[in-house]
């Protein structure tokens, strides 16, 4: 069967998600999930009918939350499907390219490779900002430029002035895709206000993080109406299951939004606690972060990761040397993780 697969698929290394990597323990801080397990009510009385392609109630609820028009909003099976839709809709296999800037989210590359679209890589600068001169020098054949802010795994925000420069640079040439999966933890940094000025801007959003619905698989693409209409040509006919719509509409209700805001505030407090505690340890560098995770550099990051793993605290290894990404959990999880790392480092130093 392997030989029957397309050549690109035969050579493909699948994205190693947190669940594929696995682990066994009682503290899971490896997937940037929310620790809150909220309850919802389902009617489940219309499952014999297909769902709408773009459920009106869901589109209206999220567009109101995001501050855009319903016709500027598309919902999909997580932001991951939004990535794939954009590549499928705008890139010719074997002809066009995407451009992305590592270290960053891995699915931009995987989605392009799966479809047979070339990938151009322009690494972030030493302070994890866009290398604009090198991006400009590599724009030939590029249709999509992916920018993640807050960036995963580094946690930093991309400078707004650089995003504006990039949008001007790519006018009538390429679409800038802002991945705002973590923007709900710092909504003031969103680029949604730029949609009115830049038709070559698309924004990816999700309910997985701040809304504690990682298992629901519900994401959104925000863009001008013309771009959304192109995506509607390639999306599956029934992309959003009926129960997904019911739950998502509840979480985007007035009561649900109040709860999400409270939970985000608590997670931001826990992030500050965890960052401050880790930064006080000798030989530890904590990088400023604006999502529900922090990037931490140790003298021996692999050892810290393995030691925590062996003790049931599941963190996420980073491609950045000696760095570990730690999701922000509830207060008890953060306290347990901080205490374990402190004791592990003290034992190593003894």
From TrEMBL:
Domain Aminotransferase class I/classII large: 41-339
Sequence positions bearing N6-(pyridoxal phosphate)lysine: 209
UniProt enzyme class: transferase
GO molecular function: histidinol-phosphate transaminase activity
Catalyzed chemical reaction(s): L-histidinol phosphate + 2-oxoglutarate = 3-(imidazol-4-yl)-2-oxopropyl phosphate + L-glutamate
Cofactor annotation: pyridoxal 5'-phosphate
PROSITE patterns to which the protein is assigned, alphabetical: AA_TRANSFER_CLASS_2
Enzyme Commission number: 2.6.1.9
This protein's UniProt keywords: Amino-acid biosynthesis, Aminotransferase, Histidine biosynthesis, Pyridoxal phosphate, Transferase
Gene3D superfamilies the UniProt entry points to: Aspartate Aminotransferase, domain 1, Type I PLP-dependent aspartate aminotransferase-like (Major domain)
CDD domains: AAT_like (cd00609)
Pathway where it operates: Amino-acid biosynthesis; L-histidine biosynthesis; L-histidine from 5-phospho-alpha-D-ribose 1-diphosphate: step 7/9
Top-level taxonomic group: Bacteria
Family indicated by similarity: Belongs to the class-II pyridoxal-phosphate-dependent aminotransferase family. Histidinol-phosphate aminotransferase subfamily.
Subunit (UniProt): Homodimer.
Name of the protein in its database record: Histidinol-phosphate aminotransferase
Species annotation: Vibrio hippocampi
Gene that this sequence comes from: hisC_2
């Amino acid at each position: 069967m392997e030989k029957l697969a397309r050549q690109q698929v035969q050579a493909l290394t699948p994205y190693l998600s947190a669940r594929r990597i696995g682990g066994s323990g009682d503290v899971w801080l490896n997937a940037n999930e929310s620790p809150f397990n909220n309850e919802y009510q389902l009617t489940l009385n219309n499952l014999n009918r297909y769902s709408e392609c773009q459920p009106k109630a869901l589109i209206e609820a999220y567009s109101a939350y995001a501050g855009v028009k319903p016709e500027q909003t598309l919902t999909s099976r997580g932001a991951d499907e939004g990535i794939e839709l954009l590549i499928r809709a705008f890139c010719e296999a074997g002809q066009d390219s995407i451009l992305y800037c590592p270290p960053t989210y891995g699915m931009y590359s995987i989605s392009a490779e799966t479809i047979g679209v070339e990938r151009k890589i322009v690494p972030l600068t030493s302070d994890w900002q866009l290398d604009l001169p090198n991006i400009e020098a590599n724009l030939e054949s590029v249709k999509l430029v992916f920018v993640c802010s807050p960036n995963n795994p580094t946690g930093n925000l991309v400078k707004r002035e650089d995003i504006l420069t990039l949008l001007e640079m790519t006018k009538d040439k390429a679409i800038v895709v802002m991945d705002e999966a973590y923007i709900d933890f710092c909504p003031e940094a969103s680029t949604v206000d730029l949609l009115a000025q830049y038709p070559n801007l698309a924004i990816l959003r999700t309910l997985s993080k701040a809304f504690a619905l990682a298992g629901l698989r519900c994401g959104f693409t925000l863009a001008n109406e013309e771009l959304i209409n192109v995506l509607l040509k390639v999306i599956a006919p029934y992309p959003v299951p009926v129960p997904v719509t019911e739950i998502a509409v509840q979480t985007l209700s007035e009561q649900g939004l109040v709860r999400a805001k409270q939970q985000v505030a608590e997670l931001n407090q826990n992030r500050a606690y965890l960052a401050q505690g880790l930064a006080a340890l000798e030989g530890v560098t904590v990088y400023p972060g604006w999502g529900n995770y922090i990037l931490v550099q140790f003298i021996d990051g692999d050892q810290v990761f393995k030691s925590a793993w062996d003790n049931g605290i599941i963190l996420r290894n980073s491609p950045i040397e000696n760095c570990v990404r730690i999701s922000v959990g509830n207060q008890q999880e953060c306290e347990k993780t901080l205490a374990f790392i402190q004791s592990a480092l003290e034992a190593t130093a003894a």
